[in-house]
Write a structure and sequence with these properties.
The protein is α/β, with parallel strands linked by helices. The protein has a 4-stranded parallel beta sheet. The radius of gyration is 19 Å and the shape is globular. The chain has a single domain, classed as P-loop containing nucleotide triphosphate hydrolases (Rossmann fold), CATH 3.40.50.300. The protein has 9 helices and 4 strands; from the N terminus they run H-H-E-H-E-H-H-E-H-H-H-E-H.
Length: about 210
């Protein structure tokens, strides 16, 4: 199975017209594969990824930043573990962003992510990212209050300002040699509930 042909189904080229709610979480793109067939397809793609990583390192002009977002139980950790299992760990770094530290709160909201941007020739993976600052922070005002922003804070405009800052930051990265690839793992609320319940039954799962 050549998975390259599937990319067009998952790439968003016209974000202004895209609506996440209109996407079917259960869509398999017509694929009917067993787990063994899926593993075989993944193995072939991992071989390509290994080759491309070697070229990235040898060229030493670009870096690749992969950003994974998704609701709890969407499978970010598993996706990173399985899809990136074939690359050289010496050329890749995974950063998981949790609650900000006191030092991080003393900087702007992009600072801690900017500090983890990969160097040339390397791959960086963000498990969550600065997008949390327009998602979680938006629905939990107490988090915004801890960020020590200059007053007064205009809650009607701050989110649009942060969107503009994020777009500017990503344009800057691209212009200076970092290719940004963003992945959102989309699951339904029912699937999320099912996975959370399964975690409760498995003591070895976080």
């Amino acid at each position: 199975m050549n998975t390259t042909r599937l990319l067009g189904r998952f790439r968003i080229d016209k974000p202004a017209r895209f609506r996440l709610a209109a996407q079917d979480c259960a869509d398999t793109c017509g694929l009917d594969m067993s787990k063994d067939e899926a593993k075989a397809a993944l193995k072939g793609d991992l071989e390509k990824l290994t080759h491309l990583q070697d070229r990235l390192y040898a060229h030493n002009r670009w870096a690749v930043l992969m950003i994974f977002q998704g609701i709890d139980a969407a499978g970010k950790d598993s996706a990173i573990k399985h899809v990136m299992s074939g690359i050289n760990p010496q050329g890749c770094e995974v950063t998981s962003f949790k609650a900000p530290s006191a030092e991080e709160l003393d900087h702007d909201f992009l600072w801690r992510c900017a500090m983890r941007v990969p160097t040339r020739g390397r791959i960086g993976i963000f498990n969550r990212s600065y997008y949390e600052e327009v998602l979680v922070v938006r629905v939990h005002p107490e988090i915004l209050a801890r960020q020590q922003l200059p007053e007064p804070i205009d809650r009607k405009t701050i989110w649009q300002q942060r969107f503009e800052s994020i777009r500017g930051f990503e344009r800057h990265l691209t212009r200076t040699g970092t290719k940004v690839l963003k992945f959102f793992l989309h699951i339904s609320k029912d699937e999320q509930l099912k996975r959370c319940l399964e975690r409760l039954d498995d003591p070895e799962r976080p």
